[in-house]
Amino acid sequence: MEVSRWSCEEVKSWLLDKGFTQYAELLCDVHEVDGEVILTLTEEDLKTPPLQITKLAHIKKLHNCIQHLVQENNNYHEKLKNGTKGCDGSAALMNARSENDYDSDMDSEIENRGKRFQPEFKKLLAGCVYAFFASWFTAFVMVLVHERVPDMAKYPPLPDVFLDNVPLMPFAFKAAEICGLTLCLIWMTILVFHRHRFILLRRFFSITSTIFLLRSVTMFVTSLSVPGTHLECEASTYTMAGRIERATHIVMGLGMSLTGVQTCGDYMFSGHTAYLTLFNHFITEYTPSRFHHLHIASWVLNLFGIFFVLAAHEHYSIDVVTAFYITSRIFLYYHMLANTQSYWRSRRIRYLFPMFSFFECNVPGKVPNEYEIPFANVDFRPALKYLQSMLNKDEEEGTTTSSCSSRSKES
Predict the structure, then answer these.
(1) Of 194, 272, 281, 313, which one is the catalytic site residue?
(2) What pLDDT, on a 0 to 100 scale, did the predictor assign at position 102?
């Protein structure tokens, strides 16, 4: 949307989003500053009457954000002139950036802090639906491949450089899942405190679902023999109702042996390796580059988890290598296209990857790693007042009922 056409409420929302809560009422409610006015505000306007902001740091920061907003509005008109379209067919609010702007991640994050990243809850809901479908479909395919698992007596394990030279570690598969759960906990903590958590979450749903739908295809088209004689894998036949029940059990147990899920035949490629690699990449992408210790720990957990998957003899080496390569490439390609907005310059990308275009068309660049206390700007006072009024109403009704019953007893 064009900034100069913003209403006072939209300007107020922008100020709250940028952390200028104390000035939202002053600018929008008292002085009725709309989009057209805020684009003309200077540093002198902010520190002199009638606004008269006294803190120098607030003046500088607010003026800097307004300058970024002016640049966004100018870029909007530039895009409109060039005919670039957004999600709804209108001109997209995107910044035209030179190639040199992508040389430094830090420069990119600083530049993008002045942009407006919208949560877009409808897209998050679409991502949730996509993730639910992909997880259940993958589980259903896992049930189908279990019915087709090759007979171990007829098809012995294939030659494998790693499995043939590394002894079996019975505890290793659960150790790999513990590594994955640790990475998952770190990622969930980042989501809670990241300012743009809803964009991150729908990206996680989109990338994860796409990878596991691809895994459904690869493990269905070719059935590999069981990689270890220690595994108790026999072909099982289910009715349709049994398949649905079994798939639901896999989804509810997240496909982990720690939750009692036992699957066979789903070898090409490794789902555990895919999750380990995804969590690692999301953690390192959405935390500041100066968090060296966290990034090192994330990579260590990723690589040790992969080693444990192989040491448990649950997958062939090719399963793990393929999973790591495909997962990392899809993650990197997705973010490269999203961060550079290359899809706007390629009609082929928009046609071949419509879901990617749908999720990313309103994201104005690389998502900056900004953090906040969740729900800090949410005003709970109306809800508390409503709850208090309901409680008072219940107390009054209870008092009235008790007085009526006592009167009936007296009569």
Answers:
(1) 272
(2) 39
